[in-house]
Specification:
The protein is mainly β and about 150 residues long. Helix content is about 10%, strand content about 35%. It contains 3 helices and 10 strands; from the N terminus they run E-E-E-H-E-H-E-H-E-E-E-E-E. It has a 6-stranded mixed beta sheet, with helices on one face. Strand 5 (about 85), helix 3 (about 90-100) and strand 6 form a beta-alpha-beta unit. It is globular, with a radius of gyration of 14 Å.
Length: about 150
């Protein structure tokens, strides 16, 4: 059985790999978020390498803050790339992606979705926050909890 690999990129950005499939969570490269935050540590994998994965790559955006959804980095990816995010009542992630030209937006909720080897579930507590979610990302042999 193929193993699942997890590669830390920076901040809350990671790549999960299972066989020849990749899921990048919360992509953020070098652009300051909120005008002054910089990713710590700098990403040691060049974004063009990640973008070159093309149809092998899916993107998960936990929420629409700049340090989890880097518009400049996202512009490197093909506009058909599947982008997954919680089905927030606020449409901020969906609107932001549409503005960048992405049209393969996939909302996920507590019932979850399956995309190839990845099963992704989103949990929210709307009484605490309208903009945050916890994600369970399963592969055939691993479970990653991504809590942005």
């Amino acid at each position: 059985m193929a193993i699942t690999e997890l590669m830390f990129l920076n901040h809350s950005s990671v790549i999960i790999r299972h066989q020849d499939e990749y899921l990048i969570c919360d992509p953020w490269f070098e652009k300051p978020a909120f005008g002054s935050w910089l990713p710590t540590f700098g990403m040691y994998v060049h974004p063009m390498y990640i973008a070159s994965l093309e149809d092998k790559l899916k993107i998960l955006i936990s929420h629409a803050h700049d340090d989890h959804c880097d518009d400049h980095l996202l512009q490197l990816f093909h506009r058909d790339t599947a982008i997954i995010s919680s089905d927030f009542a606020s449409q901020s992630v969906k609107r932001r992606l549409k503005k960048l030209g992405f049209d393969n937006y996939i909302p996920v909720d507590k019932d979850g979705i399956k995309i190839n080897s990845f099963s992704i579930t989103s949990f929210r507590n709307n009484e605490i926050s309208q903009d945050d979610a916890l994600y369970l990302i399963r592969t055939p042999n691993a479970l990653v909890i991504h809590s942005n």
